[in-house]
Each structure stands twice: as C-alpha cells, then as structure tokens.
Amino acid sequence: MLNGHIHVGIGPFQRRDTTLTYRLLHKEAHGFYCGQHHPLFELPAADISWETLQQYPVSTRAYLQQTDLPGIQNTAFVTNMEAQAMLITSGHFMGYLPEHYAQAWVDSGEMRAIDHLNLEHHSSFYLAMRASPAVRNIVKVFVKDIEDVLGLEEE
Predict the structure, then answer these.
(1) Is 51 helix (H, G, I), strand (E, B) or coil?
(2) What count of other Cβ atoms lies within 10 Å of the Cβ of residue 94?
(3) In the chain, N or C terminus with fewer CB closer than 10 Å?
C-alpha cells in the first residue's frame, strides 16, 4: 500500500503508518484454551488459578503482541492460527484462538476454554488505504460495498 501497488488492505495492523488511514471493520473475540491431553483439561475451573497457569507453557502468534500475559512465559511462537491450534490440541501448550475458530474443537471435546480468569480479549480488524493522493473511484466503490455488507456508517 505504501508504494501504491496495493490500494486496500484488511488486517489487524498492529503497527500503524501515518501515511495510511484505518477503518475499524470488526472485533473478533479470542479465548484462552488448552487441549484434552493437557494437565488442566480435567481440572474444575475453581482449581485453576493465575498461579496454576504460570506452571505451563504457552504458545502465541508472534504478530499478536497484546496476548502477552504477565508472569507467563510464551515458549512457542507460531505465525498462524492453524499452527496455534495444533500446539494447543497436542496438550503441551495453552494459547489464544478466535472463539469461532476454536468452537469445533471445544464441541468435540478436544479443547477447553479457560474462561473464568478474564483472559479473553478482542482482536480488531481494519480496512487500511493510503491517505493521499486522492483515492481512486474504484477503491471508493469497493470500500462502500464493504461498508454496506458490514452495515457500517460512512465516515
């Protein structure tokens, strides 16, 4: 986008560039999970404390910096949700996944959400485009279509 070869991008955009404009499109809910072979899987929620979590390794997606948990060591870093899910279902790691993505594993009993310690967070997705020069008409039409589909008000 910075050099003009791409007109529009959609993503979490952890790092912002002042030459781009950003429009919030969606906030995705993420939960904290362990797999069925993990030592915490069968424990009642009342037996899982913050101190308990600190005893076990956590995997994180390297591009999601806001998922760092104080006092908990991230010992594995992945670059995509699929790898994150594999590490969690292995039973050797805990970690974050979007709730809608993890739901099939939760339903099948392969994962469990650790949802009583307020560990959940939201990942924001933005539409980004160059702030100048003036946006081309085809880009304006594309952005308007996205806003219409998502039911967003024009800015």
Answers:
(1) helix
(2) 26
(3) C
* 57 close to 94: Cβ distance less than 8 angstroms: yes
Distance CA 23, CA 5 (A): 20
* CA-wise closest residue to 111 among 30, 34, 45, 29: 34
Per-residue pLDDT, 71? 72
Contact by Cβ (8 Å): 139, 8 = yes
**Does residue 124 contact residue 30 with C-beta atoms inside 8 Å?**
no
- Report the chain (155 residues): mean pLDDT per 10 consecutive residues: 85 87 93 97 95 91 66 83 96 95 98 92 90 76 88 76
Residue 54: φ, ψ to 5°: -65, -10
